[in-house]
Structure formats: structure tokens, C-alpha cells
Amino acid sequence: MKKIIKNGTIVTAADTYKADLLIENGKIAMIGQQLDESGAEVIDAKGCYVFPGGIDPHTHLDMPFGGTVTKDDFQSGTIAAAFGGTTTIIDFCLTNKGEPLQKAIETWHNKAKGKAVIDYSFHLMISEINDDVLAELPKVIEEEGITSFKVFMAYKNVFQADDGTLYRTLLAAKELGALVMVHAENGDVIDYLIKQALEQGHTDPIYHALTRPPELEGEATGRACQLTELADSQLYVVHVSCAQAVEKIAEARNKGLNVWGETCPQYLVLDQSYLERPNFEGAKYVWSPPLREKWHQEVLWNALKNGQLQTLGSDQCSFDFKGQKELGRGDFSKIPNGGPIIEDRVSILFSEGVKKGRITLNQFVDIMSTRIAKLFGLFPKKGTIAVGSDADLVIFDPNVERVISAKTHHMAVDYNPFEGMKVTGEPVSVLSRGEFVIRDKAFVGKPGSGQYIKREKYGKYAMSTKDEQLTI
């Protein structure tokens, strides 16, 4: 059945205007005034914004880590995402050395099958580069539509790849049309600092932050940027948390390199002091990179405003405080890294960004959806409101106030890192390909209705840094 959304204010990365939307066959069929309502279900969005559905480029659902598995799987995780105004996620497919890439991809397809309530895609982790891996990559791109590769520069002896692997991945990505993502921290030095701290009897959660200083994120970010320049390739730095990393990204972009940066809500509103909370409560805030001293927040907000950082991911990676985070009692290095962020990503960016005048309404849409779609080969199918685009839409009340709490969130985890935080603005209804997933703040979707999305190669809509500088 066709639908018409009327009386709302449509907001894209470029425009804000009053208009009605006609939805047919899962697509936006028409945008205009006084559309013919005969035979259509009419949805009144008076007093609300209509945004393109949020795209979360950084999630870890049903992921094994540190002797346990993330609490949110593709069902609970995507339901929570939808409540938060996200209609597409890109999850990380972890690989094992010595095994075919396709085996890992099939594992992730099976994790999502029959569970996801919104559309999804995958990034592919690269832990080693050899002839077998290089031979598989073209097939991964052409058949699976996976056009982004993740390289870890941290987690020594677990995920960490060496610089040679990163450089060869950048070369392959340049040739194949893929975007290389890096977790930029100096894993070798971190490994030494962790061992040193434990030997000195420092076991509390705060030492997670103290053994991963911002200088090591800045150093790794700069190294990745220089290797990108050498390879004449393209780089996306995930979960940027500090001024040192922002500085290296800005430096690279000013040279005209195709380097992009993502930050996360937790770095914009929380700080290192949370790790010092008594009774092991600080473990709730252990993720990597760690939370930083509060002054870094202003640097990150300014970087989003001026375009030095372009996107906001959640880095959703949820573990219960009881029974999972507690694995690290007496040894901070054994606390599973990650937090439940997926549901509140969009609201925090709106409330702390738009409402407080840090970013514009159009920048908000660009940061949480449009730019992600362009960088990761989803645009214009996703990430905008245009005739022919998927009807992934969020009807958003910009004035309602709520308090974030584990008691009311929809993630499967026993705490919320933003507990007690007041936010203004909340999704009322969320549609995926023209069908309600959330209606009047109630879940009406169906597990398994989310579709796997094959993505286009990097570059078609990802404006080069040089082109972007001409438009500023």
C-alpha cells in the first residue's frame, strides 16, 4: 500500500523545506505539495522533521571478544538501532589468519540471517596480506559488495596487523576501489605499557585509559596517513577520540589526501573521569580508544563543525556489567572492550549538536547519514530523501525531552553509559524501505525483514578532499 507523509519539514544534508512524500514499492516516488491521497495511508508528521534514515557505519553485533560474546546480536541490536533512528548498519566481519575470507563472510551472513529488522552490510577485517588474500579480494568486492577493509593497528596478538599489511591493503584498495579503515593506536607500545602497569599492581579500570594515552592514537593516525599518501590510496580513521588524531587527519586533508575521520557520541559527551568511578563501575566505560580528558570534547565538536571529521559511528559493542565486564576485576586488561551506544547515537548528536548550536541541522543529517552513504557506496539508494531513493525515513520530534536510561532502552545489556543524561529530540516513527519498523515509539517490525546490501565501490559519490576544499 502506498503511503503519504504530510505536514513534515524535510531535512537533507543540503536543504530544509516543507513538503509531502509519496512512498510506493519501498521507494520515494514523489515529493511535493497536496499530493493525491486516494488509496494511500496518510501519516501526519506535523511539528516533526523528516530525516533520511540514520546509517551507523561502525557496529559489532554478535561478536566474540575477550573470552565472551557481545550481548546484542543482529536482532536486539537492530531493534535498538531502529528505535534510535538508524535504518542501516555496517557491521565488522572478523577474519582468522590462514582461513579463506569467504568463510568469515558466511559466518557473518549466518549471524544476521532471520534476525535483522533493518538493512545491513559488512566491512571486512584484513589481518594478513598474502597471495591467497589478494586473490580473494576482487571476488569479495564484485560478489559480496563489500567495499571497505578494516585493519587494526592495536590489540597486539589478537587483531593487530603490521605496517606491511596495512600498506599492501592500501595498495590493493586503490586498485580495487575500496576504502581502508583503521583502528589507529600504537598496539606495540600499548602492550608494553599494560604489562608495566600490571607489574606495578595497577589493576583498576582507569589504567585502561592511562596505558592508551592520546599520543599513541595520534602517532598511529599520522603513520596511517603517511602510508596512505605513499600508496596514493584512501583512508577512513574510525572512532577518533582526541586532539592528537584530529590534528593528523586535518594535516593530511590539508595536503589533499583522501583521508576521512569518524568520531562517536561517547567521546563527545563522556570523559576519562568516568573510568575512576568506585566499586568497579569504571569498567562500564572501558572501550578503545579510551575516554579522554574533557577538553578533547570541544576539539571533536569543532572538527565535526569545520569538516575535519565527517561522520559519527556508534562503535556499538555491548557487554553486560555483571558477568562480562566483571571478567576484568583485578586486571583491567581483561575487561571486555566496548559499550552499548547504537540506540542513542542520533539523539545525542541532535541534542548536543544541533540544539546547542554546535552544528547545523543539515550538518547533522550529513554526519549521521548522508556522508556515510557516500563514503561507503550506499548513496543515493540510502542517505538522502530524493525520488528513487529507498524510503528509509525518520519522523523526528525535535522538542520532546527524555532521560536516557537502561530501564527504558531496547538494547539487551544491563546498563547504559549515558544513564541519566537529558536529551532533546526523539524519533517518533521509523520506516525501512517504506515499511514501519517503529510506529509511534513502538516496535512493529519483523526480525529477518532487514536486507543485506551490496555496496558500490569507493569514489563514485565520495567527493575527493581536493574537490571538497573548492566548495568550502
Your description of this structure?
The protein has 472 residues and is α/β, with parallel strands linked by helices. Helices cover 31% and strands 22% of the residues. The protein is built from 13 helices and 21 strands. The strands form 4 sheets. The chain has an 8-stranded parallel beta sheet with strand order 8-11-12-13-14-15-16-17. A 7-stranded mixed beta sheet has the order 3-2-7-18-19-20-21. A 4-stranded mixed beta sheet has the order 5-4-1-6, with no helix packed on it. α3 links the parallel β12 (119-125) and β13. The chain starts with a strand and ends with a helix. The model has no long low-confidence stretch (mean pLDDT 96).
SSE topology sketch:
Layout: E1 3-6, E2 9-11, E3 16-18, E4 20-24, E5 27-32, E6 41-44, E7 49-52, E8 54-59, E9 64-65, E10 68-69, H1 74-83, E11 86-93, H2 101-112, E12 119-125, H3 131-144, E13 148-152, H4 163-176, E14 179-183, H5 187-199, H6 206-210, H7 214-231, E15 234-237, H8 243-254, E16 258-263, H9 265-269, H10 296-306, E17 311-312, H11 345-354, H12 361-375, E18 393-403, E19 422-432, E20 435-439, E21 442-443, H13 465-471
Parallel strand pairs: 1-6, 2-7, 8-11, 11-12, 12-13, 13-14, 14-15, 15-16, 16-17
Antiparallel strand pairs: 1-4, 2-3, 4-5, 7-18, 9-10, 18-19, 19-20, 20-21
Helix pairs in contact: 4-7, 7-8
The first-to-last residue Cα distance is 43 Å
How do the strands of the widest beta sheet line up side by side?
A: 8-11-12-13-14-15-16-17
What coarse outline follows from CA principal-axis ratios? Answer: globular
Portion of residues within helices: 25-40%
Number of helices: 13
Q: Spans of 5+ residues with little confidence (pLDDT < 50)?
A: none
Mean pLDDT: 96
The proportion of residues in beta strands is 15-25%
Based on helices, strands and strand pairing, what is the structural class? Answer: alpha/beta
Total strands: 21
Tell me about the largest β-sheet. 8 strands, parallel
Radius of gyration: 21 Å
